[in-house]
Write a structure and sequence with these properties.
PH-domain like, four-stranded antiparallel β-sheet, 7 strands, globular, apoptosis, ELMO/CED-12 family-domain-containing protein
């Protein structure tokens, strides 16, 4: 197909599309009808996808917007779009870079998000042939793609900002190990974390806040993966970073046997000393040396000129600081349940830089020796907690003042108050490992508990005022195939006031049925004849998002003959609901969502699949986070987050009861790993994992 005039429009009619207005009306109609599975199958069977892709490549303005929206409707189905080629994906990336109209950028963004998520890790789709790697190849043809996305985060246009952040989150979530370091470096060079931090401080809307929290969680998860990546001299990047650190120290006339010890490593095998914090610790050490090389060289020179037992080892301190901050922000576990903004987390390298300065200051002011290193670390840990408390409202300036301006005497006195047996014990390395293990167990337990609430089922009220206003709309949204994506409501004269929902054991289908009153008896499966396929769910909207949803236009869906709509008109004959033809019909307006404080809805694309109004805040937390965890999303409710935290702390304290009763001494600080025994071979290693 070399141009639009050659697009075949149906098996029986293959005339050229000459009228732009006709094409615009055809693509406008497709937006609605491609949401219906049977119509979509007919459309695909007649070669409609190829024609739609050609329209996207060759049109502009509203026609392009309608065609992109039509494709997003088609991609809501779990089949039929696995044949999109690389050239087409490159054209979508180009559209997103070159277009600024929201009605074009929004569906283009949605298409790329769908492609990024359609990889082998996706549990909710049969199409797994795309993923980040495919998007990465398209990005090579559009070098301004990422800069454009980051620039739009600062746009005054709310939708442009929201769409760009959604796509960045999708790419962060699905980036593969092959490109993880490269992609993270590109985002860092564009200062995306600084931009997101500004958005956090600008009092964002609830919808934008949800995406900001997701970016924050993905940042923690990404850092955790880098933390688990061990440093190796066989890796060219790792080896180069270590050499750059050494060169920045400007240490001269040093024999090879003492080279790395001069800048604070304990041995001459520096890669082994990153075993606790991995490549993440190396990144932060490297960033510190590059930020101010002159100050770094001066710091190293000062330590070299001190007596050996009075030196503060820079390398060891840098790794220790990375570990302390990782513990504070839950990077050590990779799991986070916080629903609060943590903008200082997004400035991790700057926080690391200031904390190292504080470490050296305290080491010097307490006149510590190398054996006092764990005590200095305990003081720094205490001061970090003090300086970062309520960090959602703290600025970088306030943190720096707290870390570098607080007198040593004040920090020491506070630490002395903390040195009761339990508080001291909880900060030690074996207990940190215990907490990490128990946190994962608590998270998994709460996940299963929340999903179990869905499988147990519950009643939800079905107000008749809502039913009367929505009954007509629900009937009007009937699919071409005869079923509605939206769960139907009872008619105005119905006596049924309650709807019972229950998740199937396969966790893919949500069954429900309507009842006149709540019953204490167990609901039988045969009483729940209606069902919703949860594989179609793309989002979960809370009450504030529902209240802000725009109402769809009441424009008529119509199209003349001799266009792509020949396919539409012919295929619509398969309807079992006596649908009128699209000529001159006008769909009823979608129902306006209810903005009850305890309401939420499951969304498929732009369609509300089902809306819930919970009876209590407890039910709201159980069901919203039940669906969140079922769909592999982050926890969104403070109640659930506190539940995980409480279980973890109780678990730690119960374990400590046994330790305290047996008077077992828990080591303070890190246990030194002995050298490899002679003659053990190259494969010998110590297992540092928690059993």
């Amino acid at each position: 197909m070399s141009n639009l005039a050659q697009i075949p429009v149906s098996p029986t009619t293959a005339g050229p599309v000459k009228d732009d207005k006709v094409l615009k009306i055809a693509t406008f109609s497709l937006q609605k009808y491609l949401k219906e599975s049977e119509f979509a199958d007919e459309f695909l069977g007649r070669g409609g996808l190829q024609s739609l892709c050609e329209i996207i490549k060759t049109t502009s303005g509203n026609t392009l917007a309608y065609a992109l929206n039509s494709l997003t409707s088609l991609m809501d189905h779990d089949h039929g779009w696995e044949t999109l080629d690389n050239d087409f994906i490159v054209s979508i990336v180009a559209i997103l870079v070159n277009q600024t109209l929201v009605n074009i950028c929004r569906p283009a963004t949605a298409i790329l998000i769908k492609l990024a998520c359609a990889d082998k890790t996706s549990p909710n789709t049969n199409i797994q042939c795309y993923g980040y790697d495919v998007i990465h190849q398209a990005m090579l043809y559009q070098p301004s793609f990422l800069p454009t996305l980051v620039q739009r985060l600062q746009s005054q246009d709310y939708q442009l900002c929201l769409n760009s952040l959604s796509l960045i989150n999708a790419l962060l979530k699905h980036v593969t190990d092959l490109y993880r370091v490269e992609f993270t470096a590109m985002l860092d060079s564009l200062n995306v974390r600084k931009t997101v931090s500004r958005l956090m401080n600008d009092h964002p809307s609830d919808e934008l806040a949800e995406h900001l929290i997701e970016f924050q969680s993905l940042t923690i998860r990404n850092a955790h993966r880098r933390r688990k990546t061990q440093v190796s001299l066989e890796n060219e990047r790792h080896r180069g970073m270590l050499e750059d650190i050494w060169n920045a120290a400007q240490v001269h006339d040093v024999q090879g046997t003492t080279k790395w010890k001069k800048i604070g490593f304990s041995t001459e095998s520096p890669q082994r000393e990153f075993h606790r914090a991995g490549y993440f610790a190396l990144e932060n050490m490297y960033a510190f040396t590059k930020k101010d090389q002159e100050a770094f060289a001066k710091m190293i020179l000062e330590q070299i000129n001190r007596p050996e037992d009075r030196r503060c080892p820079f390398a060891k301190a840098s790794v220790e600081v990375t570990d302390l901050l990782s513990d504070y922000w839950e990077i050590s576990t990779g799991y986070t349940t916080t629903t609060e903004f943590q903008p200082l987390l997004l400035s991790f390298d700057a926080i690391h830089h200031v904390t190292i300065q504080a470490f050296f200051r305290l080491f010097q002011e307490m006149e510590a020796t190398t054996t006092d290193f764990p005590k200095v670390s305990a003081l720094v840990r205490s001061q970090i907690k003090h300086a970062l408390r309520g960090d959602g409202s703290r600025s970088m300036f306030e943190f720096e003042r707290a870390m570098l301006g607080t007198p040593y005497q004040v920090i020491r006195d506070r630490r002395l108050k903390e040195l009761e047996w339990a508080d001291d014990l909880l900060g030690r390395e074996p207990i940190k490992n215990l907490r990490t293990r128990l946190y994962k167990q608590s998270y998994d337990f709460v996940k299963q508990q929340r999903i179990a609430c869905l499988m147990q089922g519950a009643y939800f009220p079905l107000p008749m005022s809502q039913a009367r206003s929505m009954s007509t709309g629900a009937q009007g949204m009937s699919a071409v195939g005869g079923s509605s994506l939206m769960s139907p409501l009872p008619t105005a004269g119905s006596s049924k006031r309650w709807r019972f929902y229950r998740l199937c054991p396969n966790r893919r289908i949500l069954n429900y049925g309507d009842f006149a009153e709540r019953s204490m008896c167990e609901i039988r499966q045969e009483d729940l004849q209606e069902k919703i396929d949860l594989t179609f769910v793309t989002d979960i909207h809370t009450h504030s998002m529902l209240a802000n949803q725009p109402k769809p236009p009441k424009s008529a869906y119509f199209a003349p003959d001799n266009t792509l709509t020949t396919v539409i008109t012919n295929a619509s004959s398969i309807s079992t609901n006596n649908h009128s033809s699209i000529m001159g019909t006008s769909p009823p307006p979608s129902p306006a969502p209810v903005a009850d404080p305890l309401s939420f809805a499951l969304i498929s694309g732009n369609t509300v699949l089902v809306q819930f109004t919970c009876l209590t805040s407890t039910q709201y937390a159980e069901w919203t986070d039940g669906f969140n965890l079922l769909l592999d999303r982050t926890i969104a409710n403070k109640d659930t987050a506190e539940y995980v935290h409480t279980l973890t702390e109780f678990g730690v304290k119960i374990k400590l009861l046994g330790i305290g009763g047996d008077r077992i001494e828990v080591p303070h600080g890190n246990v030194d790993i002995p050298s490899v025994p002679p003659g053990s071979g190259t494969g010998f290693h110590y297992n540092t994992k928690v059993v």
